[in-house]
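In this section we walk through a basic example: taking a raw amino acid sequence and producing a predicted 3D structure, encoded as discrete structure tokens. The instruction is simple. Fold the sequence below.
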Amino acid sequence: MTDSTWFTAQELAGLPGFPASDRGIRIKAKKEKWESRPKDEGKGFEYHISSFPPAIQAALLRKAGKVVVGGMTLDLPKDEPQLRYCKEAVWDRWNKANTKAKEKAKTKVAALQAVMALHRLGDVWERLYPAERHRIVNLMVERVDLVPGGLKVSWRELGWKALIGEFAPDSIGAELVEMEVQ
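The resulting token sequence is shown next.
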């Protein structure tokens, strides 16, 4: 891959919904009139990412460590090794904490749950019906104001909690996300 927007037939072969062979990719590209350019080295062509369905675009960008947000392509943070904690030590520290520290921790957990819910939602957003997208936006957003330099979004606190509940483990939202991933 020469950069994160141009791909060879070999790189595309076998992706979900794509032919398994280089030749099959070339035939599909010609038939669907994909944007292409000659490869820098060797024979053949490279195909621009805009020619592919959104799910394939996202998968290719993710593989390259990138994501598109608001029309900008950004680098994803590098995965860091996961730390392991002793469950008993964590609960021991929790039990020794005062009420103020516990409330602060609960607030941080709620924020984390909101981020996780939004992450899970991102996986299925493109597949939602427009009416469902509208419902979720109305659930989450109280008000949008035009301010110098952009928009100011006022969030509904109860909307966050409702969305988190819909994507919590063992909920219908979490089950649907798992089914989409499989």
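Looking at the output, two observations stand out. The beta strands are 6-8, 36-38, 45-48, 66-69, 72-75, 141-147, 150-155. The two ends are 27 Å apart (CA to CA). In the next section we compare this with other chains.
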